[in-house]
Amino acid sequence: MSLPIVILASGYGAAASAFLPRVAYRLAVPFGVAPRSACAGCGRPFPAGLRGWVRVGSSCPGRAFHRASPVPTGPLAMVAAGGLAAALLALALGTVAVLPALLPAVPLGVLLAAVDLRCLRLPDPLVGALAAVVVPPLVLLALVGGEPGRLARAAAAAGLAGAAYLMVALLPRQGLGFGDVKLAALLAFPLGFLGWPAVAAGMIAPHLVNGPVAVFLLVTARARRGTALPLGPALLAGALLGVVAA
């Protein structure tokens, strides 16, 4: 572990996540509803083009959105989450080639968590973007490094995780969405690349994370019994813990 690498990784995670609060605000809408085109609080429309999606320190959009979430999803929370996640990855992986392959996934993971926390959705375009960022670099690493076994293990882990979560999702009253199934399968791929212990830790940890969170929300009156809780953030946190445990 190199302290400069950890600091650089953390800075990257925080800086990249700082551009995402408005993206989260616009995408956190019910299924079938188009992304927000204006601030729900003041009614001011978003600018056209990239400026309408990415802006740091915007005073408009999202204040009511962030207040409505039972847990912090505002700019500071997203920046802190991105910095912490990237730092933990760097601490766990050090200078190995897997680190630069996984670091770009951090801001997308933060974005997915923020959207899921607000509207209980993991939009397919975001999950697809995460897959496009995570899978190709690991495939390239395995092929260039002459380690096809790691690639086969990653694919097997993704298939097993996807099948397991799909079976649970098909059961009645489970509250598990197909977005959770896709995300679980996707996150199992890099965990499988690292090894089966990482897969086991990464698949068990989400359910250990969600329990204390549910208790906290009940105790602080931010949720009631029967309130649906998003699984996406726990899946992402569990995958991070799986990497740390690898």
Automatic annotation (TrEMBL):
The keyword Acyltransferase does not apply. It comes from the Bacteria. This is Leader peptidase (Prepilin peptidase)/N-methyltransferase. One of its GO terms (molecular function) is methyltransferase activity. GO terms for cellular component: plasma membrane. InterPro entries: Prepilin_IV_endopep_pep, Prepilin_peptidase/N-MTase. GO terms for biological process: methylation; signal peptide processing. Gene3D superfamilies: 1.20.120.1220. The keyword Phosphoprotein does not apply. The chain crosses the membrane at residues 84-114, 126-145, 151-171, 183-208, 228-245. Keywords: Membrane, Methyltransferase, Transferase, Transmembrane, Transmembrane helix. Residues 110-199 form the Prepilin type IV endopeptidase peptidase domain. Belongs to the peptidase A24 family.
